[in-house]
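ok so heres the complex, two chains, lmk if somethin looks off
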Amino acid sequence: MGDLREDLSNIDCGLPAALEATGERWSFLILRAAFNGLHHFEEFQSTLGIARNILANRLGRLVDHGILAREPMPKDRRKIEYRLTEKGAALLPAMLALRQWGETWETGVPSTPVLVDKRDGQPIRKIDIQAHDGRLLQLEDLSWKHTHEITPLEVPKLHIVA
Amino acid sequence: MGDLREDLSNIDCGLPAALEATGERWSFLILRAAFNGLHHFEEFQSTLGIARNILANRLGRLVDHGILAREPMPKDRRKIEYRLTEKGAALLPAMLALRQWGETWETGVPSTPVLVDKRDGQPIRKIDIQAHDGRLLQLEDLSWKHTHEITPLEVPKLHIVA
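and the predicted structre for the whole thing:
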C-alpha cells in the first residue's frame, strides 16, 4: 500500500469509532436480529439465547450510540420496542461484508436464506472495494494520500449538439 | 425486508462465523495495523499501546483462524513476522465499510490519510450494497429468499453481426 501509513494511534479514525459503538459479538448478533425485524427484549432473548443482563447491557449501549431507538409500542405504550435508527440501518453494508467473508472463509457455504434485490429477486452482489468509476480494486491497488494531495476530479463538460 | 427471516439460531451463518474469528475490538485494530504494513510483535505493541498478554492472545487467535500467518523473517530467522494471509486480506471490504460508517456517524470527519486508487489517485467509492447489475440498494429494497426460489439469470446471447 505504499509508504504512507495511517497514524494508528489516531482516535479519530472511523474504524475504532465504529468498533467502540458496535465492536463486540453480541452487539452484532442483536443488530442482525433487528435487521430481521425483531423489536422486543423477550424476542431477542429467546431467539438469541443471550443472558438477560448481557442483553440489557448491549441494548443500552446500542441505544446510547443512537444505533437503536427505544420506543413505546403503538398498540400498548407500556411495552418498549427497539428499532433501528438511520444510523443503525447504515451498518448494513459492513455487516453484509462480514457475513460474506464468513461464508467464503469460515462456514464455506452461503448463509440461508439469501439476501436478494426485491425488484428482480436476484442475490445481491458481493461487497467489494471499488474505484470512483466502479472498477474493482484489490489491496495492491490501494494507497494512502493526505487530503490536500488529492486533485478533485474534473466534471466532464457536456457538449451541446445543436 | 418481507416475511421471511433468517434462522437466527443458525450457527452456519457467515456473520457469527466472521465475528467468532475477528469479532473483538483489539483484533480489528491489530488487523488495521497489519493492513498498514506492521509485521512485528514489538511494532504492534508500541503502536497500538496494547498490553503484551492481550496482544499475544489476539495474535494467536488470528493465526489460529488463518487470518495472519506467523513466519520467520527472511533476514533473521530467529525473528517472527505476522503477515496477512489471503483470508486476512479478504477482510478489507468489511473493515473499510465499518471505517466509513464510523466516519459518517461517529467521528463526523473522514479519517486521514484517505485510501485512494493507486491508478488515478482518487478516493475509493463508498462501500454500498448493490444489485447484480450495480444498482444501489437500500434496506427497503432487500428481501430474503431460499436458494431454491432463485431463478438463475439468463445469460444474454451475443448476436453476431456479420
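quick notes: Chain A has six helices and six strands. thats all i got rn
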